[in-house]
Amino acid sequence: MLNALSKPLMLGIYENDLLVKSITSDEKASEFIPKILQELLQDFTFDELIYANGPGSFMGIKISYVSLSTLSIVKNIPLFAISAFELNNNRPISAHKEMCFVKKGDEIVLEKAIFGEFSLPSNLSKLNKKNDNLPFYFLPAI
Q: CB neighbours of 63 closer than 8 A, spacing ≥ 6?
């Protein structure tokens, strides 16, 4: 599972849905993701790929999606997406300066808030993995 929506970037390796290895990095997503995927492919075989598809850093979302989609196609590995809110107990997610993406019921709004910290789940079984793995940008591109 990959979360590149904010720093530190987080990547988890799971076996039988349980977290067996976690990696964090303060590098840029464009530097970290290709390098770490190349290293991990030497040691692991993946049954599925999961990434946090937003809301959050547009660049983190784009790099995650392109990298994992490419790997999914080349290696024929299913790619799933999860909401970033599943990785921070539905707390606000940093958007820009003091503004955050805030989940209110089924809606997401932008408002001033203190963002919550992300963490990798210890177990994947309770995640809402979506087959619709396209990036969720929340706001249209400017």
A: 4, 29, 30, 33
2-89 architecture in CATH?
2-Layer Sandwich (3.30)
pLDDT tens for 111-124 read 999 999 999 999 99
Q: Global pTM? A: 0.93
In this prediction, residue 96 carries a pLDDT of: 87
> What's the helix, strand, coil split of the chain in %, to 5?
25, 30, 45
Contacts of 139 (CB under 8 A, 6+ apart): 110
- Annotate 74-107 with b (16+ C-beta within 10 A) or e (fewer): eeeeebbbbbbbbbbeebbbbbeeeebbbbeeee
